[in-house]
Amino acid sequence: MTRHSHPDPDLTPDHGRQPQRVSMVAMVVVFLVAFAIRWPSCGESFWVDELHTAWCAFADWGDVGTRAAIGNQQGGYFYLIAMWNRLMPEGVLTLYGVEAVLRLTSVLLVSSAAAWMVRIVTRTSGSLIGGVAAGLALGLESNAIFFGTELRPYAAIVFLSTAVLSVVTKIMDADFHHSDAIDRTGVVRRIGLHLVVLLAAAVHVTSLTVLAVMVVVFVLADWWRWRTNRSASFVVLSIHGVAGMVWGLVAVLWMQTHESLWHAREAWTSFATANSWTQIGTLWPWGALVVWPVLALTLWAGFVSRGRGRSGLGPVIVFVGLSVATVAIATLTCFVLSYIGGVALWHRRYLVASLPFLCGVLGWAVGGIASGRFGVVGLIRRHQVMSVFTAVACLLLMMSQQRTLGRLMHGETRLARRGEGWKAAIAFTRESAPKQDSVWIDAGLIEQKGQPIFVTDPRLEEYLRYVTGGPYTLGSDLRPMGVGDDALERWIALADESAGHRPNQQADEDSGDVPAAIITRRSIGPASILPPGVERHRFGRVTVLIRRQLGDGDW
């Protein structure tokens, strides 16, 4: 047998433009699959976090940044959503609904990222099979489905993380083929890498939990690669050194402008704190995206290439190593900071930039098997069969573990559910509550903690009722009020006093009446604990308590 490196037959130059056409078709197919899997979930009512984005999108242009900032968000993404909202024709909003039209931004971003993964992995592994596996993984992974149908910045982070991966692989791919110097394109790409990561940080600073680690890992690898070449080493150190100074300046400015957020960090520990090492294992589908693909590549390469060498796997191994190192370091760092240091960083949304890297690992492992770079001519087809088997098995394992497969088999198409019926709850209250009355809004926000029931700061009070300030409104005949801690208990007590006709000197010191209703996300016990004349109406995890007329004109 003749030993030689053999690329994927579908990507050889002998086919002329056919490989590019096939690759483009694959990208389009993956995009459509990712889009189709997300679109049915876009019509559901916004949940409370999305309603903050919608509140910003429906604001006057000059108030968009202010509304984003009071919700501890950076303004760039929200300005883009506000622009998108203004550009959409009224007929489109009426036809599809405001929820689907605004969430379409996230659907397009993640679907485009999935298609982009096809291109990235195909280019770097030489295997379209590996590229399709990576793209489908990002298209079908349940967290990517959730964030890819959510009106929040995290879909943009997935897209920008994919862009970062593209830039890094282009830099390293060029270095594999040009070992003597760094050309102008290499300089531009290295500068571009820092700019893309800076853009991701501008969209949401928590993207740096992953992307900053990736930059550090890449800079170390870049320096090591060129350490023996004085001119190239000088270029590398100059670019990354200047970028490091810029990053330091940006960090100082950010900390100065967000000092209040750091002082209020204790409030965030209720939902983003690690409490068990087992949480690492359930964070992502590690087995399907990392463990089994890498194990399959290792075993297959060892079995087929005994005595033949496997130098062609070098780039694949480098990209897999870079991705695994980035995600592992980022994950462990966030876990330790949260578990030991009490820093509220342990949440998938803060590590969502990991997803393209993890899907890339699957793609490169499959591509390494498919390319046949470590085998012989007679085994090329066997490589492809094995790569397809590995890709299908890992994708099915991932979808099975995340229950996506079972839900699809049962005909379920809405794979991302929030379960908060704010739209119906607000509409019901608008139609049912007596006019010219007040309605308390108890949205269960972190910012409510420590606040008095009647919030005196008008900006904070407006923020606490933002769920009724965007696309869902109570109308002009009702007065929504954002309330602080213990509002639910106080409302029930006031309703009880009103029903019993007891004196109520402290009924509603600011509004002068007993509120007609309260809309809350908090759990409520059995109906027996409610005062007479109070009705409970549930809309998913949102509940409306409303006073009904008892007789003689009393409410």
Automatic annotation (TrEMBL):
The chain crosses the membrane at residues 21-39, 93-116, 128-148, 193-220, 232-255, 283-304, 316-338, 350-370, 382-399. The lineage of its organism: Bacteria, Pseudomonadati, Planctomycetota, Planctomycetia, Pirellulales. Keywords: Membrane, Transmembrane, Transmembrane helix. This is Putative membrane protein. It comes from the Bacteria. The keyword Transmembrane applies. The keyword Transmembrane applies.
